[in-house]
Write a structure and sequence with these properties.
With 153 residues, the protein is mostly beta strands. It is built from two helices and ten strands. The radius of gyration is 15 Å and the shape is globular. The protein starts with 5 loop residues before the first strand and ends with a helix. The protein binds zinc ion (2 copies). One zinc ion (ZN) binds next to helix 1.
């Protein structure tokens, strides 16, 4: 699969925060991890990966919550809308992403996979045949957590 990025835009519910980025709309992904569930208040977060470093805020700025030592979650300080996940380490620079729901054209995103399905809610049925991986089956997630543990988190 050859992915091409394109300029995308989005923002929060109240309009205080707006962004632009170079995004891979054809590579959106579900994350069913408990952190995404708790952060978004939804069964899973669906996000669009971005070209590393391409996220820029054209209005306002999000507040961030550091949800792990390798990433922080951006949200609107006024309305609380979840907006982005920003890596704090170079090794995960390509994990930079924005939430599908915050996009101006969310219908253009195409999910390609499900991650962290060990915590997918049993009643959250998704009628697709996309690849599904548990956290421990994803080498990048395993490596990220291993690096954190090596530092005595
Ligand atoms: Zn807002
Ligand atoms: Zn997650």
């Amino acid at each position: 699969m050859t992915l091409e990025s394109e300029t995308i835009s989005g923002g929060c519910l109240c309009g205080a925060v707006r962004y632009e980025a170079e995004g891979f709309l054809d590579d959106a992904f579900y994350c069913h991890c408990r952190m995404c569930q708790r952060a978004s208040g939804t069964p899973a977060e669906v996000s669009v990966p971005l070209v590393p470093g391409s996220l820029r805020f054209t209005k306002g700025a999000p507040k961030h919550y550091q949800s792990s030592s390798f990433g922080k979650r951006g949200f609107c300080p006024d309305c609380g809308a979840r907006l982005c996940w920003t890596p704090t380490r170079e090794a995960q620079a390509h994990w930079l992403s924005v939430t599908v729901g915050s996009l101006d054209a969310p219908e253009r995103a195409v999910p390609q996979s499900h991650g962290c399905v060990e915590s997918q809610l049993p009643w959250y049925k998704l009628d697709d045949n996309l690849p599904r991986r548990r956290s421990e089956e994803d080498p990048e997630i395993v490596a990220a957590w291993a690096a954190v543990e090596g530092e005595g988190r």
